[in-house]
Design goal:
Elements (H helix, E strand, L loop, with lengths): L1 H18 L23 E5 L3 H12 L3 E5 L38 E6 L7 H9 L32 H14 L18 E2 L2 E9 L4 E12 L4 E11 L1 E4 L6 E2 L7 H4 L3 E2 L2 E2 L1 E3 L13 E5 L3 H10 L5 E5 L8 H9 L4 E4 L2 E4 L14 E3 L4 E2 L4 E4 L3 E2 L27 E3 L4 H17 L12 H6 L3 H27 L9 H14 L14 H9 L4 H5 L7
Parallel strand pairs: 1-2, 1-8, 2-4, 8-21, 12-19, 13-14, 13-19, 14-15
Antiparallel strand pairs: 3-7, 5-6, 6-7, 9-20, 10-11, 16-17, 17-18
Helix pairs in contact: 1-10, 2-8, 6-7, 8-10
The structure holds flavin-adenine dinucleotide, NADP nicotinamide-adenine-dinucleotide phosphate and 2-acetamido-2-deoxy-beta-D-glucopyranose (5 copies).
């Protein structure tokens, strides 16, 4: 039956074009009980205005939900909101990621802060609140064509894009859906705004009595004229919540003996050691000897960026605990001047903290000692934490189904690449909460399996594609049953582009493809191996 319905759903694409948006159900043979909620869903909160949250908010608005979009940053864009501001310095040693704000007992609360109040600068309060992104000026994508619906790029857009281009693109999408800073939609002056920027969601709680979600909210505003910060706390209540807070919450600092001592060292105004999240421009590395810790994308790409300026680049790379696609790609992208050294065993205590680290000694695990380093960039990755369940710090909270819904289906997380999955998932959320789709049986995403599999990158691509198909079938079945628009799978071109790009990125046989059932690599490598496919296809300065 399911098959027949999907087949019909497929056939009826054509029909829909002619008969408008609604297509009445022909069958009435429920497989699953209709998803029911304590009360109908009207008010929905979306947390995060990155590529995922913007799509969720836009789609829910189209479905006539009363939507509120909360974003801690002053503008939309998520990871792609570039700024010269840098995040508050990471903690040494690493401390658990999570919300640190002390929540007032009663609401609403309004406070003002002057420069230096509570021992904190206004800049510190401000950047702690919104957390500037770990993106640097010359960053380009490491995935092909990151694109949102409704605001297509021009036809000649290169596969690999500068983050500046993506920022404009994501903001265009926000504007197109009336979600950008200062947009007021609907135009009725009395209607509350949908988007609330500079607003951090501090807590998400379910009220057991009313079966609603209570969000604790905190907004900061920089009052330039009086040189103060205004802080407002309040709560709002919702029938459903979408958590689109992105994959990375804070910087990860490795646990290495002596790192806390070295983290205090400064050369003039600058710390000598810092996480890659604070990296912005290469010019100031002129003539310096730089040690980069890590072997993944931030490490290789920052090394490339500073290589025209730096005197020496040394990369400390530990043996991979597992084979990771991105790591292999990164190892081949370090600039040729890179000197690779083994993992760091310890930092020997420094005599002073005000004169940099040039005289400091770094012990490597093979017994050698490194000296004469000017700066250390920790390209050691990020940590995750989630608003709900409280204090969860796994990469993804447990108990999310492949549709993104939590065990309590009035809560959902955005999943998958927002560029590809976002359009399906946001439609799925709207349909389930509008009562025009039934949730499939809860089947948890097994994220751990993805992360440890040797072919993880490949698996993600296949899983990604399988997930599209699953979504398309599910959504179209639901439309057939309850009415609604039909969706098409992503255009073949997009899927092929992703695969082709990936193949090129794993040429050089750096990766074991065993078990993936994918043999195009041997075909392609035969043709491309003689050249340098990296430079032909993924170099930033090639317009392709
Ligand atoms: C340095 C770097 C480079 C990357 N390069 C690529 C690339 O080349 N290609 C690619 O596809 N992906 C890349 N990514 C991954 C990137 O995360 C995704 O492209 C994409 O931005 C994810 O979208 P999202 O909306 O899920 O999350 P995000 O873009 O991270 O957006 C989440 C939003 O939620 C907000 N938020 C978080 N917590 C709260 C809260 N408590 N209250 C209110 N708001 C909150 C954040 O401020 C943020 O704006 C990169 C990531 C990093 C860190
Ligand atoms: N578009 C771009 O150019 C771009 C740029 C930057 C980041 N990104 C994206 O952002 C995300 C994060 O990337 P990332 O490179 O910042 O982080 P990451 O992929 O998590 O890599 C962290 C690196 O640090 C290493 N590491 C951790 N602790 C270490 C220690 N004690 N000693 C030595 N090495 C240590 C890890 O080694 P192990 O492998 O052994 O764990 C890994 O190589 C990825 O999704 C990436 O694609 C994209
Ligand atoms: C939303 O409301 C508008 C105006 O009442 C209506 O035309 C439209 O069909 C509604 N959309 C959905 C998906 O119900
Ligand atoms: C190293 O890379 C630079 C810049 O790409 C290039 O000019 C130089 O010829 C390369 N050197 C070697 C030894 O490959
Ligand atoms: C340690 O590794 C570095 C870099 O590979 C190498 O130059 C050095 O000789 C090694 N030291 C020992 C004692 O093997
Ligand atoms: C979450 O952590 C905070 C701070 O450590 C603690 O006060 C709170 O009780 C924790 N909440 C839960 C549900 O464990
Ligand atoms: C996940 O769901 C299972 C079954 O409902 C439950 O036993 C478990 O406690 C849940 N885990 C979390 C973290 O909520």
């Amino acid at each position: 039956m399911a098959l027949r319905k999907s087949f019909l759903a497929f056939l009826s694409f054509g029909l829909c074009v002619f008969s408008g948006n609604q297509f009445q159900a022909v069958f009435d043979t429920p497989k699953q009980p209709r998803t029911s909620f304590h009360h109908p869903i009207h008010r929905v909160a979306v947390v995060g205005a990155g590529p995922a949250g913007l799509q969720a908010a836009a789609k829910l608005m189209q479905h006539n939900f009363t939507v509120r979009l909360f974003e801690r940053a002053p503008h939309p864009g998520g990871n792609w909101l570039y700024s010269e501001e840098t995040p508050v310095r990471e903690s040494y040693p690493d401390e658990p990621a999570g919300q640190t704000a002390e929540i007032p007992v009663q609401f609403p609360v309004t406070r003002y802060y002057n420069e230096g109040a509570g021992g904190l600068t206004l800049d510190h309060r401000w950047t702690e609140h919104w957390r500037p992104r770990p993106v640097w000026y010359n960053l380009f994508t490491n995935s092909p064509k990151a694109e949102l619906p409704d605001v297509p790029y021009g036809p000649d857009i290169p596969w690999v894009l500068s983050h500046h281009t993506i920022q404009r693109h994501v903001r265009s999408y926000a504007s197109h859906h009336c979600l950008n800073t200062n947009d007021h939609c609907p135009a009725t002056p009395s209607a509350p705004r949908v988007a609330s920027y500079s607003t951090r969601v501090e807590k998400v709680e379910k009220d057991a009595e009313t079966h609603t979600w209570v969000l604790t909210l905190r907004r900061l505003e920089r009052l330039r004229e009086s040189d103060r910060i205004l802080e407002e706390w309040w709560t709002e209540t919702f029938d459903a919540v979408v958590i689109a807070t992105g994959p990375y919450t804070s910087a990860h600092v490795p646990e290495i003996e002596g790192i806390v001592d070295w983290s205090k060292a400064k050369d003039g105004e600058h710390y000598s050691m810092y996480h890659s999240q604070a990296y912005r421009h290469p010019e100031r590395f002129a003539g310096k000897t730089v040690l980069i810790v890590g072997a993944s994308v931030s490490a290789s790409e920052i090394a490339r960026d500073i290589s025209p300026f730096a005197h020496r680049i040394i990369a400390s790379v530990r043996p991979p605990s597992e084979r990771k696609g991105m790591r292999q790609r990164s190892l081949s992208r370090f600039p040729n001047m890179t000197e690779f050294v083994p993992e760091i065993a310890s930092f020997k205590p420094l005599k002073k903290h005000a004169v940099g680290i040039r005289d400091g000694k770094i012990h490597l695990i093979n017994g050698s000692i490194l000296q004469g380093i000017d700066e250390i960039i920790l390209a050691t990755g990020f940590r995750s934490s989630h608003l709900y369940p409280p204090n969860s710090t796994t990469r993804r909270p447990e108990n999310i189904s492949w549709t993104g819904h939590y065990t309590d289906p009035t809560l959902a997380y955005t999943i998958g690449r927002p560029w590809t999955m976002g359009r399906y998932q946001s439609y799925g959320l709207a349909k389930v909460w509008a009562g025009s789709a039934r949730l499939p049986p809860h089947e948890q995403i097994d994220e751990s399996e993805r992360d440890t599999d040797p072919g993880s990158y490949w698996r993600q691509i296949w899983l990604g594609e399988a997930l599209f198909r699953r979504y398309v079938t599910w959504l179209n079945d639901a439309s057939l049953e309850y009415g609604g628009r039909f969706v098409e799978p992503p255009p073949l071109e997009t899927v092929e582009l992703l695969k082709y790009y990936s193949v090129v990125h794993f040429l050089d046989n750096t990766m074991d493809l065993g078990g993936t059932g994918f043999d195009a690599i041997s075909m392609l490598s035969g043709q491309l191996k003689g050249n340098d496919p990296w430079n032909a296809l993924v170099d930033e300065d090639t317009d392709w």
